[in-house]
Write a structure and sequence with these properties.
267 residues, 19% helix, 4-stranded antiparallel sheet, Protein Transport Mog1p, Chain A
Length: 267
């Protein structure tokens, strides 16, 4: 059973994919009312509340407990907000081969979009989240030949969301499969996606371990592996599972035929 809270957003994803099928290649406008840099869920007040009221001046400054933004490998092309409509992301990312990948996924409408360059949505107070990771596809590999351990190494990279406070030693793959899904590009073709379910216990900022569960969907586009991660605290996983699965079902990443990503002015 899928979450009714994501039904509208998932229908929206279908609408977006239909639009893409008719060849729209215009830059997507910023979501109405959302300014570049929109960053709900990461204000000092919200972070203070999520960390039990710690704040500057207490001897343990809030900023000292929060490390730099995690590295996800996401290289966004547009500076506009990736919110297509409430509860739905539509964005374009550079691929390793210099092309463009369209990224689409839905999420619970009460989650918020984090600001900055990553594609990261979350409920800060409950520690629920979903985000996109991008990693180069190893030479001479295809998505079906990547090992489960390869995905865990990407997920728990020391510069990433879950590895930044220390090595994640307690981690286990609960299920792993390869499925063939509609590519989403309007051509009626199929595309391979790896599906994994994990449980793990990353270290928090205060060196405590936190039991978590997560679902992953991954596919290859233009020499890059695009990985969509949705997860929660282990204690909330059973309750939240329909919403996490619905978000996973909505995820698509596919190439825009014949497109070349514009060069980064700083490169």
């Amino acid at each position: 059973m899928r979450s009714p809270r994501l039904a509208i957003a998932r229908r929206g994803v279908v609408s977006v994919l239909t639009t893409l099928a008719f060849g729209s290649r215009q830059p997507w406008p910023a979501f109405a009312g959302v300014e570049p840099g929109y960053n709900p869920g990461e204000t000092s007040d919200v972070l203070r509340d999520s960390l039990g009221g710690l704040k500057p001046g207490t001897g343990r400054p809030l900023n000292a407990l929060i490390k730099m933004r995690s590295e996800t490998g996401v290289d966004r092309i547009s500076t506009n907000s990736p919110l297509f409509r409430p509860g739905q992301i539509l964005d374009e990312l550079r691929t390793a081969h210099g092309g463009v990948a369209q990224i689409v996924f839905a999420f619970p409408p009460d989650w918020t979009l984090a600001g900055g360059p990553n594609l990261d949505v979350r409920d800060v107070r409950q520690s629920d989240s979903a985000y996109v990771l991008v990693a180069p596809l190893p030479p001479r590999f295809t998505i079906d030949r990547l090992t489960d351990e390869w995905f865990m190494d990407v997920l728990f990279d020391p510069a990433g969301k879950y590895g930044q406070y220390g090595v994640v030693e307690d981690r286990k793959v609960l299920s792993s499969s390869l499925v063939s899904l509609n590519a989403g590009d309007g051509r009626g073709g199929k595309q391979g996606y790896r599906k994994l379910a994990l449980k793990f216990a990353p270290l928090s900022y205060n060196a405590n371990t936190v039991e978590r569960r997560a679902l992953l969907s991954a596919t290859e586009v233009g020499g890059s592996v695009f990985i969509f991660v949705s997860g929660s605290l282990a204690t909330r996983y059973k309750k939240l599972l329909p919403e996490l699965m619905a978000a996973q079902d909505s995820f698509r990443a596919f190439a825009i035929s014949g497109s070349v990503a514009p060069k980064n002015p700083s490169s």
